[in-house]
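Recall that a protein's primary structure is simply its ordered list of amino acids. Everything else, from secondary elements to tertiary packing, is in principle encoded there. The following example makes that idea concrete.
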Amino acid sequence: MAFRSTKSPAVATADPEALYRLLAKTNNGPAYLWGHQTEILRAWHESYKERDNVALELPTGAGKTLVGGLISEWLRREERKPVAYLCPTRQLAKQAHEKLESYGVQAVDLTGPFKRWAPAARMRFTNAQAVAVTTYAHVFNSSPKIQDARTLVFDDSQAGASYVASAWTIGIDRDEALYQTVLTLLAEGLDNATVEALRDDAPTPPRDTTVHLVSPLVVFNKQALLRAAIAADAAFSDETSSTRRSHRLRTIGDTLGTCLVYASHSKMEIRPFIAPTAMHEAFSSSHRRVFMSATLGEGGELERSFGVSRIARMPIPKGWDKEGTGRRFFVFPEVSTELNDDTSLVAPWVRKTIELHGRTALLTPSERESKKVLTAATPEGFVKLDGHDVEDDMSIFTKNKKSILDLANRYDGVDLPDDACRLVILAGLPSNTDLQEKFLYNSVGATSVLQERIRSRLVQGMGRATRNTGDFSTVMVLGTELANFLLLHDVLQAFREEIQAEIEFGRDESLGRSIDDIDENIQAFLEQDEDWVDVNAKIAGDSESKKRVNPHGTAELAKSAPHEVMAMNALAAGDLEEALRQARLALDELALNPKTARYAALWNLFSCSWTQIQAAQQATDADTLHRSAVRHFEGVRRYAIGTTWFKHLNPSAGNGTRIAYDDLDSFAAAQIVSLVQSKVWGSELKQKVEEAKKGLAQKSFKPFEAGLVVLGTLAGASESFGNGGAQAAPDAVWIFGDLLWVVW
């Protein structure tokens, strides 16, 4: 008999736990669920299954894929509606598909180009006969291929920010003609000096690396011309990047005027501050979204990443908040006795250490950082591979003892258990993966809002080669910025307790130790000898005494996040009044903590720009709105103290609102003008300036302090004087009338 229509549909069960008891009879997975898996599945079924957005956290090695797979399969059977299980990368998706099938989950692999999808596999997904396993890109796309899914399950959601935002991000490299076209078009949104520096093919540092924000008001007013320029470039170019650009322009749609434009000397990026996923039907039309992560933070990072105002967080199963996977031995070579004194010895030592370990994973925030390490420290005979080389076949790396896997800007999605890899090199702080991050971190100084994201990347990166309880790997930390970040008290306390203990032990065994001692310790660790057994017990004991504490500002960021998302969604929908209302509510939270003040400065700038747009649209209230815009810009100045980013943009360009200089700037400028016009301005002062420059470059205190006095005069102080030889007096004092005293 050839007919199959009499076959019964998949059996529905009371809950996911009962489903696994059924699947375990015939699958290739574990015989039973672990206790913590049962606990989290019960909690989800009893209290969270009807939530629109829910997040669950399980550390690496805790069986997160099985939990997500059972939720997906149970919902598919129970509701008879399509379910998609999404991963950041194709490699991760293929790994997940393989695991789900071994657990008995009916799953189809829908990775790769849509044209290559097997029609039968696609039909099984759309008819709810199997769970689709695919990548984020097939949802966040100008032409999504995963549509009409009732449930979306996002694995490794802590990595979601860049994958979600990429669908709305238009990048323009300096060597493209479009770069100069856009710079000319939006030039009035930056100050003249910045525009000239961006045009200069050989600018002086730090102008060559600084990221600038173009006035949002100018972008809004020029949106039609900007769209025409981008569309024309895409239409007449055969470049692959331009083709992608046209797709992303289509995804942005009518919201181009609400996007931000970031400009650096090497490239530009046009993107929304928060992706308007509420307007993206493939995402927003789903009935339910489940976000899974090994490192869920509490400061609203997940909400900002996915453009969702509220995501319910499930409690971590008891005991697993402290549980780790494997053991890591952290090494900070640059603070050892010899390498601290002579940095030229760092590369040879790294090269020797790679040779000792063999297969090595190199994780960096950029290709530029990777190239720097690889050029200086790749041992002779070692093969260099990148993420693309191993996307379909990891054995290319794992079968060659002499190979380095270069994972530039790739902290997730690669599993290297046991002997596959025993050395992970973390080089550079992962805070600059795109221009928005670089702007927030380096220019605005809003480190608090990015700290959660950076910590998640580092946790993912340091765990690439410790994938089970008995696994172990050396973790080498390169770069003073990264080392300093890891050892900051606030940052360190926010890590899981076991990681805190591992990092502190690694710091103590590196700081001021000889390189021979460090080499000996690494050897003992790799051999897992008796000395290391004692150390391992010490780290485990230390971790019990640790406590995980959220950084200052986390509570305020968490409360602000829903309002930020709703403000950006309202802006994208053209509702300026609601956008401003939500922005005010966000600012009410951000203004409460000094740690979030600089982020509040940026939101004041958004509010200033949106108020100016509203003023242009509502002539009757224009005067009131103009005054409100000025007040918001005063808020920018107040909260951005210690930074200069806002002085490089022109906030009043293209609008009748004049943003006045603040009193301190006006006072200093007047003093400098008087100085230039005075008789003092001449050869005598020039000589003092040269002496001051030399003095400020020295370690000797007298010429340094003398240089401070001259610097104060040039900065516009009405009085600038030194200590006159007094022992208890300040080194230098700068007085700006009755507005400000600077005491050194």
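The longest helix spans residues 597-617. The mean pLDDT is 90.
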